[in-house]
Design goal:
alpha/beta, eight-stranded mixed sheet, six-stranded parallel sheet
Length: about 200
């Protein structure tokens, strides 16, 4: 191993850690009521801070990964992340707001290790799976108010989850979940009606 490669092996991880720290600091400085654990990772272009809209008293847990890019070489659809007042993202969740908008409503929560993806790769016969452009027909995720997305759920692009809905742990959602319903399974299906809650002031 040459001296240069040894120095690079030491410096590169330090630069990456410093970059992650700076990006996280910028988010926390702009949103003073945000309660983000120090290990939460924010990944975005330095000039893309405006693609993140955070309400009051939002909580982001340990080791959550928040990815948000206004522009991507894989899609012409801009990315955006909107978190309503008192929204909560639990430990280890992975939120990927590129190629579409992800909106999480007021008082809604994403359980541990949940995954929300705003855009997905197209499946093109004969093409490399990860070198193709993203699907631009099914993009974004809309999660209403007072929604509980259980631990380990995957919410796919194009999904809409209505107010007061609950998604059972480990479910995969694609499509529309009506307000006030409990859905679960792979793929998620209606289990029962819960009913609508009272709107908060």
């Amino acid at each position: 191993m040459s001296l240069r490669s040894h120095v690079n092996a030491v410096i590169d991880p330090l630069l990456k850690r410093a970059t992650i720290a700076i990006l996280g600091h910028r988010v926390r400085a702009r949103h003073p009521t945000l309660q983000a654990h120090p290990t939460a990772i924010f990944n975005y272009g330095y000039h893309d801070l405006d693609v993140l809209e955070i309400g009051r008293d939002v909580v982001i847990g340990p080791y959550a990964v928040i990815v948000m890019f206004h522009r991507s070489p894989h899609s012409d659809i801009p990315g955006r992340l909107i978190l309503g007042d008192r929204a909560a993202i639990a430990q280890g969740a992975n939120i990927r707001a590129a190629g579409g908008t992800i909106r999480i409503g007021t008082g809604s929560g994403i359980g541990q290790h949940g995954v929300l993806v705003a855009a997905n790769h197209k499946i093109v016969p004969g093409e490399p799976r990860f070198r193709v452009r993203w699907d631009e027909e099914n993009t974004g995720i809309e999660i209403g108010n007072n929604v509980w997305v259980g631990a380990g759920c995957i919410i796919l692009p194009g999904s809409v989850i209505g107010d007061d809905a609950v998604i059972a742990a480990g479910s995969v959602v694609r499509g529309t979940v009506p307000p006030g319903e409990l859905w679960g399974g792979v793929p998620a299906r209606k289990i029962r009606t819960i009913g609508l809650g009272q709107a908060e002031g």
